[in-house]
């Protein structure tokens, strides 16, 4: 959609905030808007958009959060559980630009994955095990080694788990069945074997508890935490590799690393679907962690590790 395409619905009848704007003296100025836009921004015709959103569009009170498409998110100041996906349609020729807001309920959003996020997972997370399977299949044929075919099978299993992760976000309870008493120590060590560690070290500092859980989903939970630590650790050198520690808490466990840590302002946002501090990330890894935790009736929080890295604490496990 461009600025010179027709507006199919009168702005005053659009159910969510919307405005048109143009540049005057190098400033973006509101040309027209509906009542909803005035409520969340405090702006009316003739006001600079910067007065309501800051110099960089848009967000009320916080720094802008853009996804890879150039869209951005704005929270409703009167309903903090609600936020808006904002499309910025730039002015073109003599036609004004538009800001078009679409309300997204936070609870509903956490249970659904947009088509663009599904595409990101299919193109990013599935590529690695698919490449492994292809390479191992080629080596197995050339060397006639059963070991390579075992790795092909493991790669296929991993792809199946990734597909289930998308369903975990999209369908929730339908794909998580916490009905088995699981040895979390064994789950952690098994998850570690499936992650590309890049020289990282796992340190299980004490025996972990058993808990009623869905083994497959909890395995994926630890895989994602390990992968997050490895991918966001310090730049790899011959002398420096990240160490990931897993230990027991009175009502749960922690996963900590000695990497660069997570800034306090991002510790809640890292669990939002689509949020990533890495330009190449899908923003789904920790969102899946939070979803699996929630569907087990547990809770997860982020803090600093003793070395200044990230520490994820999962509590409420009610160990067996």
TrEMBL record:
A single Pfam family it belongs to is HATPase_c
Q: Which UniProt keywords are given for this protein, alphabetically ordered?
A: Kinase, Phosphoprotein, Transferase, Two-component regulatory system
Please give the name of this protein: histidine kinase
Q: Name one GO molecular function term.
A: phosphorelay sensor kinase activity
Q: What is its EC number?
A: 2.7.13.3
Matching InterPro entries: HATPase_C_sf, HATPase_dom, His_kinase_dom, HisK_dim/P_dom, HisK_dim/P_sf, Sensor_HK_Regulatory, Sig_transdc_His_kin-like_C
Species this chain originates from: Halovenus carboxidivorans
Q: Describe the reaction catalysed, as an equation.
A: ATP + protein L-histidine = ADP + protein N-phospho-L-histidine
Which SUPFAM superfamilies does the record associate with it?
Answer: ATPase domain of HSP90 chaperone/DNA topoisomerase II/histidine kinase, Homodimeric domain of signal transducing histidine kinase
State the CDD domains in the record: HATPase, HisKA
Q: Has UniProt tagged this entry with the keyword Repeat?
A: no
Residues forming the Histidine kinase domain are 121-314
**Nucleotidyltransferase among keywords:** no
Note the PANTHER family from the entry: HISTIDINE KINASE 1, TWO-COMPONENT HISTIDINE KINASE
């Amino acid at each position: 959609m461009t600025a010179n395409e027709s507006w199919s619905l009168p702005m005053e009848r659009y159910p969510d905030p919307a405005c048109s704007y143009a540049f005057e003296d190098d400033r973006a100025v509101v040309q027209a808007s509906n009542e909803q836009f005035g409520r969340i921004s405090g702006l009316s015709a003739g006001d600079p958009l910067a007065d309501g959103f800051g110099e960089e569009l848009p967000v009320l009170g916080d720094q802008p959060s853009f996804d890879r498409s150039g869209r951005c998110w704005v929270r409703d100041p009167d309903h903090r559980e609600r936020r808006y996906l904002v499309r910025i349609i730039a002015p073109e020729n003599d036609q004004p630009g538009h800001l078009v807001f679409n309300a997204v309920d936070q609870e509903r959003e956490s249970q659904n994955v947009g088509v663009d996020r599904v595409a990101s997972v299919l193109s990013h997370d599935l590529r690695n095990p698919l490449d492994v399977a292809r390479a191992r299949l080629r080596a197995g044929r050339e060397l006639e080694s059963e070991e390579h075919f075992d790795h092909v099978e493991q790669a296929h299993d991993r792809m199946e788990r990734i597909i289930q992760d998308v369903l975990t976000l999209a369908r929730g309870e339908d794909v998580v069945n916490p009905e088995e008493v699981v040895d979390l120590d064994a789950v952690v060590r098994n998850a570690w074997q499936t992650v590309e560690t890049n020289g990282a070290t796992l340190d299980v500092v004490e025996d972990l508890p058993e808990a009623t859980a869905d083994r497959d989903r909890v395995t994926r939970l630890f895989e994602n935490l390990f992968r997050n630590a490895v991918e966001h650790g310090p730049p790899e050198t011959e002398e420096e590799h990240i160490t990931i520690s897993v230990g027991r808490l009175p009502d749960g466990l922690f996963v900590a690393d000695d990497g660069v840590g997570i800034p306090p302002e991002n510790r809640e946002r890292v669990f939002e679907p689509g949020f990533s501090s890495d330009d190449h990330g899908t923003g789904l890894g920790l969102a899946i962690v939070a979803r699996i935790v929630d569907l087990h009736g547990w809770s997860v929080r982020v803090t600093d590790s003793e070395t200044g890295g990230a520490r994820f604490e999962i509590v409420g496990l009610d160990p067996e």
